[in-house]
TrEMBL record:
<protein>
    <submittedName>
        <fullName>DUF5319 domain-containing protein</fullName>
    </submittedName>
</protein>
<feature type="compositionally biased region" description="Pro residues">
    <location>
        <begin position="1"/>
        <end position="10"/>
    </location>
</feature>
<dbReference type="InterPro" id="IPR035165">
    <property type="entry name" value="DUF5319"/>
</dbReference>
<dbReference type="Pfam" id="PF17252">
    <property type="entry name" value="DUF5319"/>
</dbReference>
<feature type="region of interest" description="Disordered">
    <location>
        <begin position="1"/>
        <end position="35"/>
    </location>
</feature>
Length: 125
């Protein structure tokens, strides 16, 4: 079959193309995190654990993030966000994942909301 007869590659030119990992280390290897970036991810993981402990019992399912790339909101359940941050820490990048299916936006809060809520609750202690 001629390559022209095949459908176009949907990941052509995408630096996050999942097939890049099949090329071996020289194909798509990126620089690891700097020490400062690693420290930020470790701090984010610690904060995430606190936020989940405080908010999950109140019905909050996770965090909503405004995506700068596509302009849409992305809804991350606690475990998905933790796995993504851990992957960033371990591999230096987050791989694409499936978006939440039909999320209820009222069940998700922003990172800033979590920080403010945690600050308020923990200052009352």
């Amino acid at each position: 079959m001629s390559p022209d007869a095949l459908p176009p590659d949907p990941f052509a030119g995408d630096p996050h193309d999942p097939a890049l990992s099949l090329d071996g280390p020289e194909g798509g290897e990126q620089d690891g995190l700097t020490e400062a970036e690693r420290d930020e991810v470790v701090a984010d993981l610690a904060d995430l654990a606190v936020y989940q402990a405080l908010l999950e019992a109140r019905g909050v399912r996770g965090i909503v993030v405004d995506c700068g790339d596509c302009g849409e909101q992305h809804f991350h359940e606690w475990s998905l966000l933790r796995a993504s941050l851990q992957q960033l820490l371990d591999e230096g990048q987050m791989r694409p994942h499936e978006p939440a299916f039909d999320p209820d936006p009222t069940s998700y809060v922003t990172w800033e909301y979590c920080r403010g809520y945690a600050d308020a609750v923990l200052s009352d202690s």
